[in-house]
């Protein structure tokens, strides 16, 4: 005698959607296929978006670090230039200027710059050895001052002019303002690129989500027939896009860190870090911010896919 076929009955009180979720969860199969036309290309595109996002974030951090280093010295230092008809007059002016500076409250340190170093600054334009041989190079006194003194330099300027007629005081305000303005422009540009990358990730996610729904229209219809809600379908699609986004984000982050590491190594090897070009290194603080860029790309992709699916399903069903 044949045994009756066993039937699987839902536990009492279990809704069809919950049963469907339990079955899908037990099987581990996603709503959309993992492989095929929607998988590898979308992962590659997200990897590219993540790569660009990391580079944009790195540019923002490098410009911010460089601007801070450039302007910190300008905010705390002053320069006194002493001119004269001959070396004796320049030396007397330097001595008089140093006396005034050392007697001024708010001056932390005042030191004359080495004459050979001053002459070396003119060599790119005048040739090696010509500046010291044919010119009376003005003396440079580097001064470190407190913020209170920098707030009002008129009195110090008058005292220096009275003690040494050939002395002039420069607070670097013009250079500070130009560097600060250039830094803000660079930061705004890098942040704008980051926003464009996030916008491109949103657009790609919207297109891929709509294409996935269109390709799996029959599956979505069956899920609705068995009681699946739009929120359940959207959650499945979000999970799918989150997995793809995470894969792409990690790939993009790895490639970007490799490119930045090679760029930093090449700059240090060529000596570019000693010039006006800002030096950078992948420190712990910088790595944390760089890791935030691909995470943002991954979250934007998944959330945009969910919202797109919800809007599309509400318009069709």
Q: Biggest β-sheet: count, sense, barrel?
A: 4 strands, antiparallel
The coarse overall form would be: elongated
Spatial order of the strands in the main sheet? 2-3-1-4
Uncertain regions spanning at least 5 consecutive residues: 1-17, 19-28
Overall pLDDT: 77
State Rg.
Answer: 33 Å
Approximate helicity band:
over 70%
Q: What is the N-to-C succession of helices and strands?
A: HHEHEHHEHHEHHHH
Q: Provide the β-strand percentage band.
A: 5-15%
Computed structural class = alpha+beta
Count structural domains: 2
Question: What keyword list fits this structure?
Answer:
alpha+beta, 2 domains, four-stranded antiparallel β-sheet, 11 helices, 7% strand, disordered N terminus
How would you characterize this protein structure?
The chain folds into two domains: 18-71 and 177-316, no CATH class; 84-165, no CATH class. It is built from eleven helices and four strands; from the N terminus they run ααβαβααβααβαααα. The chain has helices spanning 16-27, 40-76, 87-102, 115-126, 130-134, 147-151, 154-163, 173-215, 217-225, 230-270, 284-316; strands at 77-82, 107-112, 139-145, 167-170. The chain has a four-stranded antiparallel sheet with strand order 2-3-1-4. α3 (87-102) crosses α7 (154-163). The longest helix is centred in the middle third of the chain and has 43 residues, at 173-215. Mean pLDDT is 77; it is low at 1-17 and 19-28.
